[in-house]
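MODEL INPUT / OUTPUT PAIR
PAIR INDEX: 1
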Amino acid sequence: MFKHILVPADGSDLSKATARRAVSFAKEAGARITAFFAKPEYPVSYYGEGALIDPTTPEKFDELAEQQAQQVLDFVVDLGREAGVRVEKLSLTSDIPYEAIIDAATQAGCDLIFMASHGRRGISALLLGSETHKVLTHSTIPVLVYR
């Protein structure tokens, strides 16, 4: 069965519910978890100086992104601790979350990606796309989708 599960997290209610279920699943399977957070890249203006004024420096932006990552990942670590499941933390910087998720799973040596789906159907799913769908179609690692 699965021994090392990647659990992408973003701090949303859906992400927290998924983390809870992933920890329960890992406990039943005797697996460990790598909790993952994709930090955003610093936004760059392509319209010239002063077009969009953002007072946040790249350093401050990175610091805030790291704080957010640690807060989100610590939630999963705490769930694991309570359940007796080993949880490690990993964050990568990327503006393409699905690629970051797949890269993180590969880098950590995971044999399963356990992630949420918003459950969109029909035209909204086609128009909005889905990071989960992109992971499903691009990953060579099995993906378990929780909804």
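PAIR INDEX: 2
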Amino acid sequence: MTTIASLHPIFYIAFLLSIVWWFYSVYRKKSRAMPNLTFWGSSLMYAISMYFSDFSLYQKLLSMLAPEAGVAIAVFLIANNLKHTRAFFLTAVGIGSIGYMIYSGLAGDGVQYIKKQFTGTESTTVNKKNTKLAANAELLFDIKDEALLSKIKEALKEFKLKITKAFPDLKKRDFTQLDDFYAVDVPQDQLGKLKEIVAKLNATGAVDAVEYNEVYSLSPIEKKAVSSKEGNKNDYLVNDPDVDKLWGFEKMKVADLYRYIKDNKVKPKKKVKVFILDTGVDANHEDIKGKYLSVKSKYDRDKQSHGTHCAGIAASVSNNSKGIASFTPNNDFVTVTSVKVLTDQGWGTDKMIVNGIIEAADNGADVISMSLGGPSRDNKQRAYMQAIKYANRAGAIVVVAAGNESQNATKVTPANVDGVITVSAIGQDMDKASFSNWVSDLKRGIAAPGVDILSTVPGDKYAAYSGTSMATPYVAGLLGLMKSVNPKLTTDQAYAILKGTGIETKQTKMTGNFIQPLEALKATLKK
């Protein structure tokens, strides 16, 4: 059933193509039997695949009954009963409707799925360029006083809203104001009044802020096969067969790091927990399981491969005669784990991600790595700000991808949230990757390798991806090493070390300094 569910984008594209085929048959005066059969067959299979998917019933209905799909079906049924003399006009309308559907992104999942399966494209960032709202909780608001909740409900009762606690599972309520946040579920027939609802919420004088609960979706970036000819020949003192293919290790002088740890008998004071907030992690991967610590079994799988790739960069098992390696030469320094904040279809909401930050902090995270984010319609992100404060107070350093839109990262959330370390991507030429956002206007910008990065993917496999998503876990892994020898290291202290020991790139002002693990470790040991 899982296989059927994963094929729903392909069935949807088959449905679109069947309409085109039908119009062509009418225009050319050919038999419509096969196009008819294809149309109804693909529609049925799409419905079945949606039924077995992980979407909620509400989301399934929205997807099945999308306005664009309704238009296409209506045109098909009407045209089926009209004379052939009008076929040319209807063909143009039908193809135009289908073109609009593809352009508007409705068929985007199918395109991404096919590219992933047949051309080797994989998702390496999360983007919100075309922001959409969550289906079950479109709005979040920060209440000034719990006693004012009844006033809010009274002011908005005409809209029949469902108002619930947004983040009910906080363990350390005195650490944050997240307990003051509520989620607003707007009925389908009231969505057209969303702006009016927001205005009335603000007019009550009972809220500090209203935010949209936006949806993130994975965006594809092409992966690249890495041959052994591209590898470097440093003596890394580890036996992982593909370590010479990690070009970033040479630029970051990882061979010197391993040698220093061995010669100086560096020992951890704490086994640090690095949390990957993503699409899940393949906990049974041969190059991860030796360092993996499970929080919940449902987080220990990954259908998108994005989270598993990030986990391998941050904390793959070194010196195990398999695959690649990470900054720690053995399993004593760091464990890696997962909180799944993006679905198997590769999307998630602000609320889901904030809840993930809370869960990681409550489970003892020392480092939280988030290779996600994108442009937002909200200028201020109070929920994210409070979540980062919560994590910081619980002892976690939060690392976030700068984003892949080739723009100023100040426009990207949560990269622009105060309290995080934001990571740009560098290529082998030590220049900013063409896709990478720049971090020059952020408080804590830093750079790491992010182009053609070889790492783990589900099923004991390996692949090279590009993106600030790949640069981020390099920084998270290094912070894990640093915190293992100095557990009390704060975000400000850690960033000062990364910046102070990093080296220049070809565009240092835009990228931030490029991390140097050995020098960062030495500076940490002196603190």
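PAIR 2 NOTE: Residues 2-116 form one domain.
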